[in-house]
C-alpha cells in the first residue's frame, strides 16, 4: 500500500511538500493557474491529532499557528482548510 507522500509524488511530482506525521490530515491538493500544486490540510484534524498525542487544546492551537500556519517553505508551502 502506498503512503500519502508516494501517491501525491506519483501524481504531482517529488517536489510536493508534506508535513511529517500528519498524512491523515491531508484533504486534497490545491491548484491555481500559474502556481504549483500544494497540499491542503484540514485544520481541525491537525488540532485533534495533536490533542490526541498529548497536547492541550491551547498548546495544539499555539503550535498550529506558529509552526504550521506561520511556516513558509517556499511556493509549495501547504495550505490549511477550516471547515464551516
Q: Which of globular, elongated, flat, extended, rod-shaped describes the shape?
A: globular
Number of domains: 1
- Biggest sheet features: 3 strands, mixed
- Quaternary state of this entry equals single chain
- Helical residue percent band: 25-40%
Write structural notes for this entry.
Helix content is 38%, strand content 15%. By secondary structure, the chain is an alpha+beta fold. The protein has one domain. Strands 1-2-3 form a 3-stranded mixed sheet. Strand 1 and strand 2 form a beta hairpin. Helix 2 packs across helix 3 (57-69). The chain is globular.
Question: Topology of this structure?
Answer:
Blueprint: H1 4-12, E1 26-30, E2 38-42, H2 43-52, H3 57-69, E3 79-81
Parallel strand pairs: 2-3
Antiparallel strand pairs: 1-2
Helix pairs in contact: 2-3
Give a concise summary.
The protein contains three helices and three strands; from the N terminus they run H-E-E-H-H-E. The mean pLDDT is 95.
Features:
single chain; 15% strand; 3 helices; globular; three-stranded mixed sheet; 3 strands; 84 residues; alpha+beta
